[in-house]
Amino acid sequence: MTTISAAFSRTAAAFALVLAAGMLTTCKTDNLGAYDAPLANRQNADAAESPPLPYRTGDLKPNERPAPDSDEAGLWFIADRAESQIRTSGNRITDPKINAYLKNVVCRIAGPHCKDIRVYLLRVPASNASMSPNGTMQIWSGFLLRFRNEAQLASVIGHEAGHYLRRHSLQRMRNIIEQTNTFSFLQFALAGVGAGAGIGILDVAMTGGIFAFSRDNEREADGYGILLMSEAGYDPREASKMWKQVLREEKAHKDAESRRPEPFSSTHPAGEERAEILARLATRVMTRTSTDVGRDRFLEAVLPIRGGLLRDELHRRQFDTFAELLDMLMEDGANMAELHYFKGELHRLRGKKDDAKIALDAYNAAKTAEGSAPKDIDRSMALVYRRLGRPDDARAALRRYLEANPDASDAAIVRQMLEGS
Amino acid sequence: MLASRIGLMKVLVVVTAILAGCVTTTQQTGHTLPKDEGARRIIVLPPDVELSILHAGGVEEPNAEWTRNARKHIADDLAERFRRMNVALVNGDRIALESAGDSSELQLLKLHEVVGASILNHQYQGPRQLPTKVNSFDWSLGPETRHLATKHGGDYALFVFVRDSYSSDARIATMIIAAAFGVGIQGGTQIGYASLVDLRSGDVVWFNLLARATGDLRTAEAVQETVNLLLANFPQ
Fold first, then answer.
1. Largest CA distance in chain A
2. Distance CA A202, CA A11 (A)
3. How many domains does chain B have?
4. Which among A122, B11, B71, B93 is least surrounded, fewest beta carbons within 10 Å?
């Protein structure tokens, strides 16, 4: 069921956020505790005493299913239904090659849990991945643009696998029920002294958020991610590098925001802390065999669909972060022609002072660079020539466009433009 | 995400329905079933049911075992009921998002999810009722529904949706204590609808809302009482 007005669900989400911030943040920011837990568990596995597990949850075993009458079965039931929505979702990328590739990395990371985790690639231009309790892993397509190699992808898959293995959703659900139950008497006490009207709204707010994890859950999953990737032979230092790349993009966004008055864009060190701790953890879990980075394999799988992903990113019109993303991809240097083309598109669409000229330079660079630019490059160049007041060059570019794309859907209109001008 | 939206919808409907003081409310186009038994075959889709425990703090925890049983009881009860009504029943057990093989079928199922929720939200009297729906009931999935008719050999499709919650002991205690102070806290609720779609036109010809603070779907006997209400005023 999906039709609640957007405004209302935003309100509910805001309530849920306020609640989450108000009552659920008891985490410390300065210890390695949760980050360290997975490694400590591994080391204690043979020792007689193992650390107490939160919310009575042991790790899931391969092929393990919850007992039919348990609260966990209820959670899986909801997750199963959500999964059938994801599986049949219109924005799922079903290309068999990229899906097979992702599944392959999942299996390498998750080992005996390979069959328990189903990975879905969704066409969403943002960097995110998520895990639900029944083993449904979602990766958003925008994330693929932010990895430089397979090890970086593996670090995210390892992190999500950590949520699954440690049953973080179940911990979270039990936690929320306990906390809200305690809180219900407070609601009631407030209501008793005449401050009553809030109960319904709190009820609404509390129905959300079971799938969001706590910060300590996130830290533990980070710890798991880095351990699993190292055990699978990947270079664990790539996890920290990936976060640094994400931070670079965030910084580009903040720098742009700080030029505009924006009271809520305060800096927060969470991302930097994360990158730094991941780098420290990497030195602990590294072995002589954990050296695989897998850049070539990654590029072979992602380059065929990268153009589409970049197009989606362009259409968000977040020009500052897109420019930073393109810079990073250019430093990496695969299919440069495509990257120059998108740099041209960025400046053509932004259309500020000097942008037309920068766009033209980028398109020209795309023409001579390694790789191949999308076939509509000459049409874009024609538009820029026109803006620069060079009608002859614009016509020549349109002719080249028609030669390269005689069957384009807009071929007739372009021909008419050429005849008319 | 999904769970929270359903929860939100449910709260809204409960508020609306309880304010309206009703248990079931039927909306229909006045459509009657054809006399010819061969032209009133009904595809009964797997009921979309969820039973949960309502905790003291207001969190609903889905219960898989109750849900599985309730689904079966409801499907069995519907089969028996239509047999008695001399309505030919087409088993729709395999027509579900989990198993739909072809995309047209899938899209129709998803479309009814959205249309059903919209009727629930915007047809009935309350703050979210659309002004254009005050004196009319005209919802349709469009004639593409003929695809379902030909593929499965049915003339109508019946969709059943129920969300049923049961107060935990702690919730009941909270309610009792709150009541002593004159504060009302909502206990478990039962919200649902049954929707009959004419597969030739795609029109929703009959829609029945069930909303109450009682009812039980955990045993076969109790299910009968709920299905009675769900199918109140079913076209003859």
1. 86
2. 12
3. 1
4. B93
CA angle A4, A7, A9 (to 5 degrees): 50
Say whether B210 sits in a helix, a strand or coil: strand
CB contact under 8 A, A177 and B118: no
Examine residue B235 and state whether it is found in any structural domain, yes or no.
no
Q: CB–CB of A84 and B170 under 8 A? A: no
Sequence-distant (6+) residues with CB within 8 A of A21 are none
- Scan residues 87-126 of A and list those with Cβ closer than 8 Å to B: 87-88
Please, what is the average pLDDT of chain B?
84
* Spatial distance between the Cα atoms of B8 and B12, rounded to a whole number of angstroms: 6
C-alpha A417/C-alpha B82 separation (Å) is 65
- Would you say B198 and B155 are in contact if contact means Cβ atoms under 8 Å apart? yes
Are A377 and A330 within one domain?
Answer: yes
Cβ distance of A74 and B61 shorter than 8 Å: yes
User: Are the Cβ atoms of A88 and B60 closer than 8 angstroms?
Assistant: no
Is residue A255 located within the same domain as residue A332? no
- In this prediction, residue A397 carries a pLDDT of 97
Residue A55 vs residues A172, B8, B152: alpha-carbon distances, Å:
9, 27, 47
Q: Is residue A61 part of a domain?
A: no
d(C-alpha B116, C-alpha A1), whole Å: 9
Identify the residue whose tokens are 């026109």.
A386
User: What tokens appear for A268 in the block?
Assistant: 């927060």
- Which one-letter DSSP state was computed for residue A271? H
Task: List all residues of chain B from 149 to 208 with a beta carbon under 8 Å from chain A.
Answer: 161, 170-171, 174, 177-178, 181, 183, 185-186
- Report ipTM (2 d.p.): 0.79
Nearest residue on chain B to A1, alpha-carbon basis: B113
Q: How far apart are CA B227 and CA A186, in angstroms?
A: 38
CA A67, CA A64: separation in Å to the nearest integer? 9
Inter-chain CB proximity B57 and A16 less than 8 Å = no
Q: Are residues A222 and A312 in the same domain?
A: no
Dihedral of alpha carbons A284, A289, A294, A297, sign: negative
In a domain, A268, yes or no: yes
- pLDDT confidence tier of residue B67, bands split at 50, 70 and 90: very high
Segments forming the whole domain that contains residue A162: 33-38+75-166+217-285
For the stretch A5-41, pLDDT in tens is 333 333 333 333 333 333 322 223 334 667 777 766 6
A186 in a domain, yes or no? no
Instruction: For strands B156-167 and B42-44, give the pairing.
Output: parallel
CA–CA distance, A350 with A387 (Å, rounded to integer)? 13
A9: contact with B, CB 8 A cutoff:
yes
pLDDT at A185: 63
Burial B66-85 (b: 16+ CB within 10 A, else e): bbebbbebbbebbeebbeee
Q: Is residue B152 part of a domain?
A: yes
Q: Which residue has the tokens 């033209």?
A: A360
Is A128 part of any domain? Answer: yes
Query: Which of A203, A206, A213 is the best residue to mutate to test the B interface, defined by the most B CB atoms within 10 Å of its own CB?
Result: A203
Residue from the list B61, B118, B185 with its beta carbon closest to the beta carbon of A177: B61
Helix, strand, coil shares of chain A, percent, nearest 5, are 65, 5, 30
CA distance A270 to chain B (A): 25
A17 touches B at CB < 8 Å: no
Tell me the HSE value of B36 on the side-chain side, using a 13 A CA sphere: 3
